[in-house]
Design brief:
The structure is a single chain. By secondary structure, this protein is of the alpha+beta class. The chain has a domain of 216 residues: Anthranilate synthase (4-Layer Sandwich). It is 28% helix and 33% strand. The chain is built from 9 helices and 17 strands. Strands 1, 2, 8, 9, 10, 11, 12, 14 and 15 form a 9-stranded antiparallel β-sheet that branches. Strands 3, 4, 5, 6, 7, 13, 16 and 17 form an 8-stranded antiparallel β-sheet that branches. The radius of gyration is 19 Å and the shape is globular.
Length: 326
């Protein structure tokens, strides 16, 4: 559970109750959440696109700009050291799934706006010149009094022979996916009743500049109480950070993440969302490039379990360093 600032919660609930469309960001630690009315977001340097809404105009984007994308992955040794710390906690029973993330330096100055404009992803966001995210992962959606979440866990190169079946039958990936589905079912039960897994282990193919990948997701839904909009912020304070990018059990795993990763994640692996006056549509801030001083970094990671092999996990976090531009 995140303890978000009171002024943020009050404004969030006020705009929801008055049916005013707004966009919002909640960072992983819950320290710097922000929200803007839809018509004001552009003036704050925030551009976004979801499957149902956007504040991009025809003049906002030049889709013909070239992108020079190359990177230096995090070195294997420090990753191995962090991985081993996680394994120690796994062996002690402190956690049974932890999402370990790292950042890799990009070799060139990156035009974040160009990436935002050209990336093909269901959820895209650009804030000032601070970061861009082109996320394939929906967090929660509301449809009337129904709440739906789509945890994404499981990745494989789609260029391997029979890659989809390899992913669906992989023992480690299945353990990881089952764990997160159970965690998200429990999270939704804090908010809703009649929790159901509507779709289990469906695959999505993502085309990228470095080849194609399969991602595995599930769909879970529940029924919210009729008066849920009286405290709409409750939907997020109760279940953030998102389970798919933290782990289980969540509270203890979050403390281990803080110990192992050492630096705050900030908006990376937080969420962004849009309220259209009736319903929410939100996404997890993954596939994420940030500017830090004069340098640019790509942040990526993956779920670590007792079945994980360090080389495989290292390869997966590198595989996730891409832009969805073909």
């Amino acid at each position: 559970m995140l303890n978000l600032p009171v002024n943020f919660i009050n404004q969030f609930n006020k705009w929801t109750a008055s049916q005013r469309p707004f966009v919002f960001l909640i960072d992983f630690e819950g320290k710097k959440p922000v929200l803007f009315l839809k018509d004001e977001a552009v003036h704050q340097g925030l551009f976004f696109a979801t499957p149902k809404a956007t504040n991009i105009t025809k003049t906002s984007c030049d889709k013909n700009k070239m992108i020079n994308f190359d990177f230096e992955p995090v070195h294997f040794k420090p990753y191995q050291q962090a991985f081993q710390k996680v394994q120690n906690h796994l062996q002690q029973g402190d956690t049974y799934l932890l999402n370990l993330t790292c950042k890799s330096k990009l070799k060139h100055i990156i035009d974040l706006t160009a990436i935002f404009c050209r990336a093909k992803a269901p959820y895209r966001i650009l804030w000032q010149n601070r970061f861009v995210s082109f996320s394939p992962e929906s967090f929660i959606q509301t449809k009337g009094n129904t709440i739906v979440t789509f945890p994404m866990k499981g990745t494989i190169s789609a260029d391997l022979p029979h890659a989809d079946q390899l992913l669906l039958n992989d023992k480690k990936e299945n353990f990881e996916h089952h764990t997160i589905v159970d965690l998200l079912r429990n999270d939704l039960a804090l908010l809703a009743t009649n929790i159901q897994v509507k779709r289990f282990k469906f695959l999505q193919k993502i085309k990228t500049n470095r080849g194609n990948i399969w991602q595995m997701s599930s769909e879970i839904q529940g029924q919210l109480p009729p008066d849920w909009k009286k405290n709409a912020a409750h939907l997020f304070t109760k279940i953030l950070p998102a389970g798919s990018i933290s782990g289980a059990p969540k509270v203890k795993t979050l403390s281990i993440i803080k110990e192992v990763e050492q630096t705050p994640r900030g908006y990376y692996t937080g969420i962004f969302g849009f309220f259209d006056g009736q319903d929410f549509d939100t996404a997890v801030l993954i596939r994420y490039i940030e500017k830090n001083g004069e340098n640019f970094y790509y942040r990526s990671g993956g779920g670590i379990t007792a079945l994980s092999q360090v080389k495989n996990e290292y390869d997966e976090l590198i595989q996730k360093i891409y832009v969805p531009i073909t």
